[in-house]
Amino acid sequence: MGPAIQISGLTKTFGRQVVAVNALDLQVQRGTVYGLIGRNGAGKTTTLRLLMGLLKPSSGTALLLGQDFWRASAQVREQVGYVSQQLHLPEWMSLAELNRY
User: Fold this and answer.
1) How far apart are alpha carbons 94 and 75 in whole angstroms?
2) Are β-strands 5-14 and 18-28 bridged in parallel, bridged antiparallel, or unpaired?
3) 66 near 50, Cβ under 8 Å?
4) CA dihedral 59, 67, 47, 35 (to 10 degrees)
5) Taking the model in full, what pTM does it have?
6) Which of 49, 48, 2 is nearest to 29 (CA)?
7) In the β-sheet with 59-64, what is the strand arrangement from edge to edge?
8) 7-37: per-residue pLDDT in tens?
């Protein structure tokens, strides 16, 4: 069984001048508690969003549970939870719809 998180050369740019994550290499073993700490704007949230398949990397790879979440099956995705610091959920959704979402 491989690492829980395997990141290699991960880079994310926005436009031509904003480099949010720059060639990040990181490996976190399963069962490990790991803190991603840094100043505002350091790329922590962007890194998590790249891992979760919510953003596409400009280059490099980001594997979570051995999977690229851009291609991961629903079965693999069900094993991971992510709660953003700022929730932007549609107010018109019922609790049942939010749960499915």
Assistant:
1) 24
2) antiparallel
3) no
4) -140
5) 0.77
6) 2
7) 18-28, 5-14, 59-64
8) 999 999 998 889 999 999 999 999 999 998 9
